[in-house]
Amino acid sequence: MPCMLLRDGQVCVPGPDGPVVARTPNSSAFDPFDVVDRLAANYSILYVVDLDGIEHGQPQLDYLQELSRDMTLWVDGGVRVADQAIDILVAGARRAVLSSAYLRGPRELRRAWRLSTELAFELELAANGQLVTADDGWAASGPEELAGLVRSAGPDHLILSPRERDPDWSLVARIAAGGPTWVDGSFEPGESSHLAAAGASGGIFHISELLTRWDETPTVDPSTTS
Fold it and tell me: In sequence order, which residues have a C-beta less than 8 Å from that of residue 161 and are 6 or more positions away?
């Protein structure tokens, strides 16, 4: 599943100090609608990381509405409370992604599930392998315990997101044994052997490499670093 970062209507890619705007050699930004059109030719689902929602609590609902007309979207918009997930779904997302890094505890998880079943849940892991959590309600749990808690509350589709480290494939396999599990990582689209061996449903990858294969190659604009 390709992952597109979106900030203020512009396509971004990972940079050394955070997401940066992807630019062509002539310094123009990539049009997100053109990017989605090209991705839709080869992929059925797009994972959108809405940086405005994550960084400022203001998801780009107008853009999500337009993009969802051309491709099925899973959207991580930094949902803190249940109502924000519904806003993302109403805008056209197929699934709203809740994350241990932003959601304010199990109560909001249960509230969101009562409002809609079109949810996925991200377990974000720091470089040391510990869960990244936004609320003390998650803090006592390890990734396997939290996976069980989330699935018992309702959402079955989980995303394991290790940051600044390779995935722990034995952990992936244990979590995948309980239900559909996706891995957000730095691997390339063709490197599916680990995913298959662990029983994962699939992998989520950034589109930086895909952009370089297209007609114009993106470069980093230093003025747009986070």
Answer: 99, 122, 123, 124, 125, 183, 184, 185
- CA quadruple 114, 117, 118, 120: dihedral positive or negative? positive
| Distance from chain centroid for Cα 203 | 11
Q: Distance (Å, rounded) from C-alpha 33 to C-alpha 9?
A: 10
pLDDT (tens digit, 9 = 90+) per residue, 90-125? 999 999 999 999 999 999 999 999 999 999 999 999
Single pTM value for the model: 0.91
What does the alpha-carbon distance between residue 114 and residue 132 come to, in Å, rounded to a whole number? Answer: 25
Tokens found for residue 115 = 């409002």
The CATH number of the structural domain formed by 2-224 is 3.20.20.70
* Inter-residue long-range contacts of 91-96, CB under 8 Å, 24+ positions, other chains counted: 91/59, 91/61, 91/62, 91/64, 91/65, 92/64, 92/65, 92/67, 92/68, 93/48, 93/64, 93/68, 93/118, 94/45, 94/68, 94/118, 95/119, 95/120, 95/157, 96/120
Q: Which sequence spans correspond to the domains of the chain? A: 2-224
